[in-house]
Amino acid sequence: MKTWMIAAIVTLGGWNLLFCSCKSSSKASEASYPLVAGTLEEAVKPDSAPARILEAMERAERFHNYEIMSDTLHSICVEAIGEVDSTPTEGYGIVVEKGAASTSFLNLGNARQPKARYDAKTGTLWFANCAMWGTGVQVERLYLMRFDKNNKAHIACTIDPYDIQQQVCQRLGYSIEGEQVTLYDSGREIANVNFNWNDNANIVSDMGGFDSEQPLWIGEQIEYDLSGDTPRLLITPGVKFTTGLVLTYDDMPTLAAPLTISKDGKVSISELKEHKK
User: Fold this and answer.
1) Alpha helices per DSSP H over the chain
2) What angle do CA 6, 206, 7 make, to 5 degrees?
């Protein structure tokens, strides 16, 4: 049974990591179209602040915070901890305030523009932060938080990027005809891109054509839109060209789908559609 492999170097909390992924040809044969492959091989490591930062936080007399989200109507706000006393937190720590109650999550990352939204109908707080980043890489992790009777927050569910990738890999297919790539969600056409090498409107120039073994990948760009009551997944496929050492995202569409989470924490991804920015 044949497999195909690609590697991508990303930065996680200041460390360079190498991620590889393989895709079996037997998977592709089970679908109407060949399926995209995933760059993530396993679950992304949980947020974890360095010991020296945690120690500084625990003994600090004052936190210096900046606002991530504020909902004055429901008396709730989410803030990032920028410094404790005069010590920078190096991108870790958030505080959730609801009414008179305050809950600190010292290990949660706050780097690279985290986002939050409160759903008053369900009493749910959604929080998304960056779990991996680097050149061409932006991968977010989604948290569902709830509140007890005293308005103290707790993490009820964590949605790992790897789990999202694996679900999408089972559905997102593609076809290539000449310079045109068409994307399908479970056989339903959802987007297409024409890589016309002679068209100056396109960003990507001729890179020797598409990789013959595995041209389409996901896993390096997984984000969330929290502007509505329901979180929406935003995922951008990358293209591997014959002469490229990394995936290319220029000219590729971002795909969007609402998420639903069951009481037992199971995540369901609705129909994928092209995201109109």
Assistant:
1) 25-29, 51-59, 161-169
2) 10
**pLDDT tens-digit readout, 122-180:** 999 999 999 999 988 999 999 999 999 999 999 999 999 999 999 999 999 999 999 89
CA 179 to chain centre: 28
Q: What are phi and psi of 57, to 5 degrees?
A: -65, -45
pLDDT digits (tens, 9 = 90+) for 20-68: 444 433 343 345 899 999 999 999 999 999 999 999 999 998 999 999 9
Do residues 240 and 217 lie in contact, with contact meaning Cβ atoms separated by under 8 Å? yes
Query: Quick check: 247 and 221 in contact, CB under 8 A?
Result: no
Please report how many Cα atoms fall inside a 13 Å half-sphere around the Cα of residue 121, on the Cβ side.
3
Q: How many CA atoms lie within 13 A of 58 on its CB side?
A: 8
Radius of gyration for the alpha carbons in the chain, expressed in angstroms and rounded: 21
Q: How far is Cα 48 from Cα 173, in angstroms, rounded to an integer?
A: 35
SS3 169: helix
The reported pTM is 0.85
β-pairing verdict for 137-147 and 153-159: antiparallel
CB 117 within 8 A of CB 128: no
Which H/E stretch holds residue 53? Answer: helix 51-59
Element containing residue 108 per DSSP (H, E): strand 101-109
